[in-house]
Amino acid sequence: MAEQDMLEAEFAMKKAFKEDYNQLLPILLPMDSILAQPVKPQLDNAIRKASIVAEKHQNSKWLDNSYIVLGKSRLYLGQWADGLEALRYVYANGRDENDKNDALILLMRAYIVRKDYSNALGVAEHLSQQPLDKSSIRDFYLTKAYLHQQNGEYLTSVAILEETFPLLKKSIETARIHFAAAQMYDRLGQYGLANKHYRSVSKNRPSYDLGFYSAMNSLQNEVVLNPNKDLNSIGFDKMLRDRKNDDLRDRIYFTMGLLAEHRKQIPEAVGYLQKAAVASKGNLQQKAYTYLQLARINYESLENFEVSKAYYDSALTILPREAPEYLLVSERKRALDSFVAEYTIVTTEDSLQNLAKMNPAALDNKIDAIIEDQEKRRLEAEANERKAALAAQNANKQGIPNPLANGNERRWELYDPALINQAKLDFKRIWGNRPLEDDWRRSSRPLQAASGNNPAGTDSTTAVNTLAADEGMKKGTPEWDQAHDLLKKNVPLTDAQFADSQLRKETALYGLGKIYRFDLKESQRAIATFNRMLSEYPQTQYKDEIYYLLYLSYEEENQNKASWKSKLLSEFPNSTYARLVSKSTDAAGNSGNPIKEYEAVYMLYSKGEYVKALEDIERNLPAYKGGSMEDKFALLRVFLIGKVRGKDAYGQAITEFMRLYPASVYLPRLKEMQEFNSLSMGKR
């Protein structure tokens, strides 16, 4: 009876478990206490009934089985200590060897769920030397394959699965395992073997979704294996028309987008992925992955960084926190926030400086051309909006049933795009093109709107004709001159304005290069940005640091690495960056205990022996590059410089620390010190 309760609970948990086919399917379903909450009564019943045997029938031949049921049920409920204890009891005191092996297999699975892979491997090694019956061999192979899958050892995992499949009967579980094997072959780049298992999915009674995703993945592999394959022969149109695929249309478009991108058809790929995002019906996980693909394409292929950032923002809002990509996406999103800000400054100042270099007549003509282009695009957008509104109203008249006639509830307006377009049209007809500002109702509205609402007999066609009269600003009008002056105001025409523009651009380029190097991990783009900075600003205040960052950005075997090190040492021999690159292998190997060395230097600092302490720390600081205490040594160096070299050097040391260690936990303290130093300098 206890076993039956547990089987019913396991069946319900399997049914409730929501697969994410974009991720690697686990060979065994996870033991999740949250997933077990709806079936807690069944599991509690299993524990209660199994406990009767354990407490009152110590001589029963079912004692080992009862402890296994106890252990497994407690593991499902998240009671790890009690569950592991019950399984260990069976191994230590069990009378039946098969029961002991079953308990060990379950114990190994529990270790895997807790990511205790070393103990799981130890149990697996012991079991591999035991004689196992047929069912135990099957469970052992699956659990060991699961262990290597979770540990990222896909080649070992699929090798074990290949030995396991002959032991498995046709079932949806076997279909899942074939799908997981195919996914691992995909990650290993063996697409032919992957497709073999994708085809096996359909032979093992899969669920509709499992069969569908298997077919989609197989199609992607076919295109990779046969680049000349005609995509029209795949039958995507037929899949889209099939009503059974209504809630899977987003995945079909997603696959079409991936295939188009694989063929370097980037505009088509973006179009399909945008359709996938629109077609998502409640499948937020799929929508998140669609946004991630759009973000990646806009960043890597189109270099449309602002759009990429927007897609990362959208993906992060709906991506589950437990998803493997969540941390990576959140870090990239933060990096792109800073990146887009710096990139916008660089491109804006570039454009303004190019305008400033024109003669006055050419500058005025250029600004007029910009205004004319803006007006053209605005008018085109309004024309498209009018057409959409008219089409929406016609669709409403023809296709939307009367809610009173058929008893349906009226749909809320903000859920209906047609009604939204009509509302926008009515607003513009009555109020005109209003700027976004407070208290707009107090402004005098156009004369044609004085009568209030739309008079009888006026329809959307009249509204469209009213709006059609707007032909945009004309050159020579006060509105045009005002827009012209506003744009011209930002152009740096004086020497002082141009110098300020240059400083903003220099600082932004410097920040852009560091974001490429440290946040986005794109060394080549960082190198290009730093080289551009040195070319445009040969006397930049960041020159020594840029030399150091260029040195870091090249691979060890690249000759440019040594070249930048040489330039740094020759031009800035006394800088912190020169000391960092001068660290020899011997110094790194004989740096001793950093904690003890820090305590020794700090003792000198406490005794007032500032000069000797500063000499020691500057000599040894390069030995701690990349270590956990590097910024701590650097912070103490800042204090010592303030004691030995005065306020000016102290301020420079603080600024240098903030540039070198932007993620340091001591940064808030340094900023306070910098503000205090600035105030004291001002008073002086």
Automatic annotation (TrEMBL):
Domain of life: Bacteria
Biased composition (Polar residues): 450-461
Pfam families with a match to the protein in the record: TPR_6
SUPFAM superfamilies for this protein: TPR-like
InterPro entries the UniProt entry points to: TPR-like_helical_dom_sf, TPR_rpt
Region of interest: Disordered: 441-461
Cross-referenced Gene3D superfamilies: Tetratricopeptide repeat domain
Protein name: Tetratricopeptide repeat protein
Annotated source species: Dyadobacter linearis
